[in-house]
Design goal:
By secondary structure, the chain is an alpha/beta fold. Helices cover 45% and strands 17% of the residues.
Length: 412
C-alpha cells in the first residue's frame, strides 16, 4: 500500500463514523494545489544536476497552510500528498489556526556538500517563493532539513518579498527562532506518553520503553521521558539497537551521541542487536520515531508492546494497524503524538508576528497545555464513540475542518 492510500483509509474510517457528506469527503481527500518543480543546482565540480521538488497544499479552511520540507531520496508526490493531508488533521486535532501542507526534494542530502545543499535550497525557493508566505503557507523542518535550511529559505524568500521571518518556522533562535522548537516534537511525545499512562493507570517507572530512531524526535523523547522516570530499555539508529533490560542511562547515551556526530555506533554500555530488533523487543511502550512504514504485516505479529506512540509520521501500515487493534494494543496516532513540533512552530510564528520573545518556560508550559487538552479531547472521543485513538483523533480533526469549511460558505 502507498502512503496516500493509507492516509485515505484512516480518513475514511473516521468520515464514515461522522457520516461526512460525500461532497465534503471528496473536497477533503484531495489537495487544493500540488506543485512539482525541477530544481537545477550547480555542483561543486561545476556540473549541473536536477532534482524533483514538491509542495502540496492540502487545505486552508482553518488558516494558512503549514508543514515541513523533507529532503530524502524516497520523497515523491504520493508521499508528500499523504503527509500534507496529515498536516491538516494534525493542526486541527491540536486546534492550531492552520491548514496543512508538505513539501520536499528527492535527494540524499548526506551525499551533497553543505554548499551544494545551500544552492539546491535557494534554487528550490526561487521556484516556489510565490506560493509560500506568512499568510498562505509556512514551511518548517522535517526529515533531512534543519536550522541551516530554514535560514537559507528565509533569506532567499526575503530577497523577493522583503523582511518577514514568519514565512518559515524552525529557524535558529538567534534568527527569530523560538526557544524550545528543536526539542518540541520529542518532548511532545513524552508529554503524550505521560497523559496516556495517567489515563490507563500505570506508573511511568512501570513502563519499559523502546525508542526507534535517535534523531531529533527520538533523542528528545528519551531525554524527557527518562527525566520523568520512564525506564528506557532500548534505543536504535541505523547502526543498531542498543538494549539494557534494566534501563539505559540516557544522560550517558546523549553525551555519547553528542561526541559521536549524533550516532549511537560504538556505544558500549548496552547489548548491541540488529537495528530492526528494536520493534519486536520485550517492552511495554514502543515509540517508532524514525521512518514511515516500519511496522508491517511481516513483523506485526512479533511486536510485543501493549502501547505504541507514533513519533514518526505514518510508521504503521494499515494492515498492521488492524492486527494491533484486534490485539487491543493502544496506539496514539502521529497526528496527535508528534504534534509538539508544529505546535511550537505556531508559537514561533506568533512571536515573529508580534515582534516579541517568549521564555523557554512559557513555550514549555503552553506546549504542555495544548497537547494535554488535545489528548484529553481525543481520549474522550474514543470513549464516547467506542473507537481507537486514531479514529478518534481523525474524528476530532475532521469535525473542526468541516465546521470551518461550512462557516466559510460551503453549507450542505
Ligand atoms: N515537519 C513537522 C511535522 O511533520 C513540523 C511541521 C511544522 O512545524 O510546521 O509535524
Amino acid at each position: 500500500m502507498k502512503a496516500f492510500a493509507a492516509t485515505e483509509l484512516y480518513f475514511n474510517e473516521a468520515a464514515d463514523r461522522l457520516g461526512l457528506p460525500d461532497w465534503l469527503r471528496t473536497l477533503l481527500l484531495a489537495a487544493k494545489r500540488e506543485v512539482t518543480v525541477q530544481v537545477a543546482c550547480e555542483m561543486d565540480d561545476g556540473t549541473i544536476r536536477t532534482f524533483m521538488g514538491y509542495r502540496v497544499q492540502h487545505d486552508n479552511s482553518r488558516g494558512p497552510m503549514k508543514g515541513g520540507l523533507r529532503y530524502h531520496p524516497s520523497v515523491d508526490l504520493d508521499e508528500v500528498r499523504a503527509l500534507a493531508s496529515l498536516m491538516t488533521w494534525k493542526t486541527a486535532v491540536v486546534d492550531l489556526p492552520y491548514g496543512g501542507a508538505k513539501g520536499g526534494i528527492a535527494v540524499d542530502p548526506k551525499k551533497l556538500s553543505r554548499k551544494e545543499v545551500e544552492r539546491l535550497t535557494r534554487s528550490f525557493v526561487d521556484q516556489i517563493h510565490d506560493i509560500i508566505g506568512p499568510d498562505t503557507d509556512i514551511p518548517a523542518p522535517d526529515m533531512g532539513t534543519g536550522f541551516a535550511e530554514m535560514s537559507w529559505i528565509r533569506n532567499q524568500w526575503e530577497k523577493y518579498h522583503g523582511f518577514n521571518p514568519a514565512v518559515i518556522t524552525g529557524k535558529p533562535v538567534e534568527e527569530y527562532g523560538a526557544k524550545g522548537r528543536e526539542e518540541a516534537t520529542g518532548r511532545g511525545v513524552g508529554i503524550i506518553a505521560s497523559k496516556m499512562l495517567k489515563r490507563i493507570g500505570i506508573r511511568p517507572d512501570q513502563c519499559r520503553v523502546a525508542i526507534q530512531g535517535f534523531g531529533n524526535v527520538g533523542s528528545h523523547a528519551a531525554k524527557y521521558m527518562s527525566e520523568s522516570a520512564f525506564p528506557i530499555v532500548a534505543v536504535s539508529d541505523v547502526s543498531g539497537c542498543y538494549y539494557a533490560p534494566d534501563g539505559l542511562n540516557i544522560q550517558d547515551v546523549l553525551r555519547y551521541t553528542l561526541a559521536n556526530k549524533g550516532s549511537l555506533e560504538g556505544y558500549e554500555h548496552a547489548t548491541k542487536l540488529p537495528a530492526d530488533d528494536l520493534l519486536t523487543l520485550d517492552c511495554d511502550l514502543l515509540i517508532p520515531a524514525a521512518l514511515g512504514g516500519v511496522i508491517t504485516e511481516d513483523n506485526v505479529d512479533r511486536v510485543k508492546a501493549k502501547m505504541i506512540i507514533e513519533g514518526a509520521n505514518g510508521p504503521i501500515w494499515p494492515e498492521a494497524d488492524r492486527k494491533l487493534k484486534e490485539r487491543n494494543v493502544t496506539i496514539v496516532p502521529d497526528i496527535l503524538a508528534n504534534a509538539g513540533g508544529v505546535t511550537v512552530s505556531y508559537f514561533e510564528w506568533v512571536q515573529n508576528r508580534q515582534h516579541y520573545r517568549w521564555s523557554l518556560d512559557r513555550v514549555r508550559q503552553e506546549l504542555d497545555h495544548t497537547l494535554s487538552d488535545a489528548f484529553e479531547q481525543v481520549w474522550q472521543e474514543a470513549q464516547r464513540s467506542q473507537v481507537g485513538l486514531r479514529t478518534a483523533a481523525f474524528m476530532v480533526a475532521i469535525r473542526r475542518v468541516q465546521r470551518a469549511t461550512e462557516l466559510a460558505g460551503f453549507v450542505s
